[in-house]
Please model this.
Amino acid sequence: MAMSLFGKKPPDKGASGPASGARRADKNEITTTMDLTNLGDMGRALAAAAGKIQVSEGSTEDHAAVEEAAILYANASEDGARAVLEAAIDGSIGKASEELWLMLFDLYRLTGHKEAFDTRSEQFTQTFEISPPIWDESAPAPVPERRQSAPAVNLSGTLSGNARPQFEQLTRIGQKMGKLRIELARLKGVDDSGCALLNDTLAALKRMRVEVVLFSAAHALKLIEPKLKVGERENQAYWMLALSLIQQTANAEHFDQVALDYAITFEESPPSYEAPPAVAPEEIPEPVAAPEPDVDRFAMTGVVAGNQPDALRQLAVYASQRSRVEVDCTQLKRLEFVSAGALFNQIAQLQGQGKATLIYRPNAMVAALLRVMGIDQVAQIERRKA
Model:
């Protein structure tokens, strides 16, 4: 899955998106983006992830299960999402929200588990005293199994301490997924508080045994090297970050030299060198071409994945010619995390241009992710009938 945090402020100052009221943009704050072609960043999306989702009924536990299951499914962990939903429902028989049930039913349909669907249908009827959803044979086929990839975060702008709530969310996601990829190529600077924040986050992830890979570490190292002055007992946080970045370049000789300078400067032992984790080739799903849009609606189908999916580029062309944008998601199986961030940014831009967006009938798993990411704050979502 790729994920992008802390994005740009939507163009419309009066926008009701996640940035409005939830948090204020600071031109020097961290941005993690997917904005390789001005498509994406999901700063606001992740900022909204902590507490934005609205569950019509149920408890705080329901809220957490909805969020966790949506993120796991977005990152191709169907079994993990199923386990979360089933545990939440079984742990509060008769009290779990209908939202959880509908997500589980859709997940069964998406993954082809009809027997489990039928068993749960009986429980649903007993619980709510209404007819259960039906097994829709025309629903999208089960999502092909693929190796679960690590969530990817792209940092851009100047890293500062303002991003602490988002980094706390990042840490929670890393703990759930067990691994993270962080891209530093577009980082333009790191201030004192941002340096300490990144150090604290890396240390916390290490304690949790989360596998972290920092890409473009050499680029980030160049940004902070001017702060490293041998013999001057200052900027210790920069020194610690430099050692972490050098480890990621797998240059043990360089690490030993900087570690020695650190010991001389601060008169204390530096961290030990640890070889970075091996990076397995990413499995990139075959691109799914979006069909020609219907008269008034753009169709998004299959699995939409990556930071620049073809479907979103085609959506941008479609939207440029219309004042109202309708996105048909009836045949969308899964929207990966990084693509959800790109979609949020794109719709926020449309909102800034005065264009309304309707997302038409996504499945319950995708709909939950859209709310987790704050997309319901910049677009209308028409729910699918059960």
In short: The mean pLDDT is 76. The radius of gyration is 22 Å. The longest helix spans residues 192-207.
